[in-house]
Amino acid sequence: MAATELRRRGVPDATVARLPAYLRVLAAMADRGVRSTSSEELAAAVGVHSAKVRKDLSQLGTYGVRGVGYDVQHLSLEISRELGMTREWAVVIVGMGHLGRALAGHRGFFARGFRVAGLFDVDPAVIGERVGELTIQDLADLPGTVRGRDAIGVIATPESAAQQVADALVAAGVSSILNLAGGNLAVPDAVDVRPVEVAAELQILAFLRQRRDFDVDLERVAP
Predict the structure, then answer these.
(1) Residue 10 confidence class, pLDDT cut points 50, 70, 90
(2) Is residue 3 predicted with pLDDT exceeding 70?
(3) How many other β-carbons are positioned within 10 Å of the β-carbon of residue 90?
(4) Engineered SS bond to 151: which of 90, 101, 140, 214, CB 3.0-4.6 Å?
């Protein structure tokens, strides 16, 4: 995967995590007909300091031109190439509950270089159902779908089943996993796992809101 290659080159994980945000902002600029941008404009749109933007992009060997900035189209292509977005990636989703079905119907995948190639579950009650253009398959059929592909696995099961699914994905040759189920997964070192815990993100938002309210209260009582 492209992220693994970036790490091998010494690009910090924090920089890799910000690249999709830069790409999203650049795409919006391109849609508006913007041809060039500055690190300050990118920083304001992403919510970081301009020096961090310049450092992030320099990690990729990309530098703006003084007085001109960055060419939007060229920078988009460079970041897309670094992220592996100049090719199409197959995505397999395991767990066809509400979350898995919502992901399967997400229209934004294709526009960003991803194609949902397979839907899987272990529940006989849902195996064989159609979700959009795909049929839910038995998890046992996973190897046949991912064979010969650089597939990304998405775990959308309950947490109690996540490790079993991760084991099945690894056994099928999947080395990139997005874990939406929560919990820690035991996988080989060569397998990349990105955890996304919605509850934890909500807790962070609650903390930020509480802190902002506290700051407002302090301002009200300040002499």
Answers:
(1) low
(2) no
(3) 18
(4) 90
Q: Which DSSP string do the residues of 70-96 spell out, in sequence order?
A: EEHHHHHHHHHHHTTTTS-EEEEEE--
R_g over Cα of the chain: 21
Is 95 annotated in a binding site? The answer is yes
Tokens 């979350």 correspond to 99
Nearest in space to 182 (alpha carbons), one of 203, 209, 200: 200
Provide the CATH topology of domain 89-199: Rossmann fold (3.40.50)
- For 15-66, how does the pLDDT look when each residue is reduced to its tens digit (9 = 90+)? 888 988 998 899 899 999 999 999 999 999 998 999 999 999 998 887 778 7
> φ and ψ at 19, to 5 degrees?
-60, -45
Q: What topology does CATH give the domain 2-82?
A: Arc Repressor Mutant, subunit A (1.10.10)
Any binding-site annotation on 98?
yes
Residue 100 is labelled as binding a ligand: yes
